[in-house]
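Late entry, D-glutamic acid complex.
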Amino acid sequence: MLMTTGPIGVFDSGYGGLTILRQIRATMPQYDYLYLGDNARAPYGERSFEVVYEFTRQAVRYLFDQGCHLVILACNTASAKALRTIQQVDLRRFDPKRRVLGVIRPTVEVVGNISKTRHVGIMATDGTIRSKTYELEIEKFYPDIQVTGEACPMWVPLVENDEYESPGADYFVRERIEHLLSRDPQIDSVILGCTHYPLLLGKIRQYMPQGVHIIEQGGYVATSLKDYLGRHPEMETRLTKGGNIRFLTTERAEQFREKAAVFMGETIEAERVQL
Ligand code: DGL
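Prediction complete; structure with ligand written out below:
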């Protein structure tokens, strides 16, 4: 049976999207949320365009089948490689009234108000950097800004494997930051373009020179979503408001429960599902 109302779906390849969900829920606690982490197939960062698109499409379809009318791709890699095709091709087939939104646009929109030198760095997965989505989006809003992308392929594995507070993490965080800033010493603002990176924030702050602004996405995505729902009452009325949250994972529920608690700062329950 077709459900006319449902929770907001939030999708990520793994745990990273929880940093976005946490901020969205803090801003709008009244809604119900359904989080899906494709942990069995994470990380997506090094995967091809076709594979990320296919996995993301399956996840969106699954969340739609669970009754979600609005799905947030809380993953930059999926937003970079799959969002546009899903919006332009798949939604028409699934249900043109449903919506899928990403995390890149809300982040890009604020960068022009933050950078003074008009030199901006992006730290993200290899897939996001190679897609050049940030460059293209920033060019549309702020053509005067020069963008330098830095792929940080070790950062997601550090987070996924609970090594984000280890001395090994210091090494990889420091060398990527130094490499980025050696490529463009005029950078005064750096976007953390991966939803896993807030877990490394302590170390990123430690190695980022003073005066370089670190742009975290969560708050901007939450504000942008709130604004979107204010402008789209036809979608807002299709969201259930019970303040509930459910977690789904494609890997072991027990493992997800333990790790997600760290990201969310509270104990949670999780169910395993197959896409
Ligand atoms: N959290 C995802 C992002 O924002 C990437 C993690 C992955 O490589 O799967 O890009």
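The chain has 13 helices and ten strands. Will revisit in the morning.
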